Amino acid sequence: MTPAIYLEKGREKSLKRRHPWVFSRGIKKIEGKPSLGETADVFAHDGTWLAKAAYSPHSQIRARIWSFENQEIDLDFFVQRIQQAQVLRQDIIERDGLTGYRLIAAESDGLPGITVDKYQDYLVCQLLSAGAEYQKDTLTRALLKVFPDHYIYERSDVAVRKKEGLSERIGVLHGEEPPESVVIEENGIKISVNIKAGHKTGFYLDQRDSRQQAIKYCKDKEVLNCFSYTGGFGLYALKGEAKRVINADVSQPALDMAKHNAEINQFDISKKRAVFLNADVFKLLREYRDQGTKFDVVIMDPPKFAESKAQLNGACRGYKDINMLAMQILRTGGTLLTYSCSGLMDQVLFQKIIADAAVDAGRQVKFVERFEQAADHPTDTAYPEGFYLKGFACKVI
Ligand code: SAH
């Protein structure tokens, strides 16, 4: 018999709105001893059937909903969800000429805990929940049904797996090990991705639209690309005929890849038109400010500063600090392209922080454009948490 989870009175409300999480405090009783990640039926306190969910005994999010229909969670279920996700992305895949994109964005694609990024014929999975782990073999088979002849690799080397009672894992799920670099294309730009050792699954696909939007600000400009990773924004700036691009990051492998990426796109990086600088951005910005070095465009795409609510205050200070410094080193009329990928910081708060940074920098600043994650990172109406990446173009006058 399928195990059963009964909710406390009133706790069915969020599920009726199709939010996919059941918190431990909302559970009245559990019948049938589900194992780690096993599928269970979820019932309201009065016995009304609500959903099929994966059981996570160690997490505060005690169950994640697979389906609000009473169906088997089997190979066909996963094939359907994967096909649905592919169809949802078809128009942007064609528009942007993508050979790399996020195929499955977890909860936002009805597959909680499962991220799959497609880089050419490599499908890279990140499994973050007990349910995702439990279904790993079925998921692998389903991916192969939809994408025959693809290779499947796992990058579940993320600390949050501990909360689900899972250890970290990297390795082949099907086919061969990926090579050191797989070259994808987006908007006519080639990008090498190191699937085995790069950040996350190898690349920051979510910033694609913002990179494309950045091009128009860069013609004949001196650009500082902070937190450059493997070149991302810097490559678009070169395509946009920037006069000079300084890419700054603390990761030498990322900088080496950034240089390689500029080369495979045949951008002219002679005479220091592109520089790849191993530097701590916090220190570098202060140095530039103190030396009076100025730029026309500063791109500010830092890693996630807030992993939990407890870190949010510190994160706000961090964002304010770097954005203030960026404003101080911009020439009059210059452009700040600034982003936050911390889901806990909403767009309104981020806008406030930029406003505070302007006050502290003593500069007059206008918001001229707003950005968000690319469309292969959709947000389900029932799961607003899926919207995490926001950004602004600001003019400093
Ligand atoms: N803009 C990139 C993604 C940036 S990810 C793109 O479009 O692909 C964040 C990057 O910040 C990582 O490469 C990480 O190595 C770097 N980083 C983290 N802390 C840093 C610091 N203090 N100074 C410089 N780089 C840092």
The CATH topology of the largest domain = Rossmann fold
Order of neighbouring strands in the sheet with most strands: 16-15-14-17-18-20-19
Total number of β-strand segments? 20
Strand content: 25-35%
Q: What is the CATH superfamily of the largest domain?
A: Vaccinia Virus protein VP39
Distance between the termini: 67 Å
Describe the sheet with the most strands: 7 strands, mixed
- Following the backbone from N to C, one meets helices and strands in this order, namely EHEEEEEHEEEHHEEEEHEHEHEHEHEHEE
How many helices? The count is: 10
Ligands in the model, by name, code or SMILES, are:
S-adenosyl-L-homocysteine
What would CATH call the architecture of the largest domain? 3-Layer(aba) Sandwich
**Looking at the structure, what is the overall shape?**
globular
Query: What is the arithmetic mean of pLDDT?
Result: 97
In percent, how helical is the residue content?
25-40%
- Which regions have little confidence, pLDDT < 50, spanning 5+ residues? none
